[in-house]
Amino acid sequence: MERVKDVPSPDAKYVATSFRMNFGATVAYCPEVFLRRTGKPLGKRGNIFRGYKDDRIRLEWKTPSHLLIYCTPDCRIDLIKEHHDGVTIELIQNWKWLDQVKNK
Length: 104
Description:
Layout lengths: L1 E7 L5 E8 L8 E8 L11 E4 L4 E7 L2 E6 L4 E5 L2 E2 L2 E7 L2 H7 L2
Parallel strand pairs: 6-9
Antiparallel strand pairs: 1-2, 2-3, 3-4, 4-7, 5-6, 8-9
């Protein structure tokens, strides 16, 4: 597991962590997201999001209880939860966000 980024919620109650898993030479890096309460340990696998084929993702808190997960249309989704521990999770799968990141 390669930890990419910890993104705390605006009220610091939660932490969303994005990381990449590498399952060997025949599979590309796989993006995963683990959501937990602040101070709790990080799990070994993503508990709210798992994808493959494209590891470009971005996490953003819309509110203290609404997490946005951005990924490209090339990312194939294995797991996406809509709710976890009082947090609403929204997946946005398009190219727009990636262009915005490149232009910053």
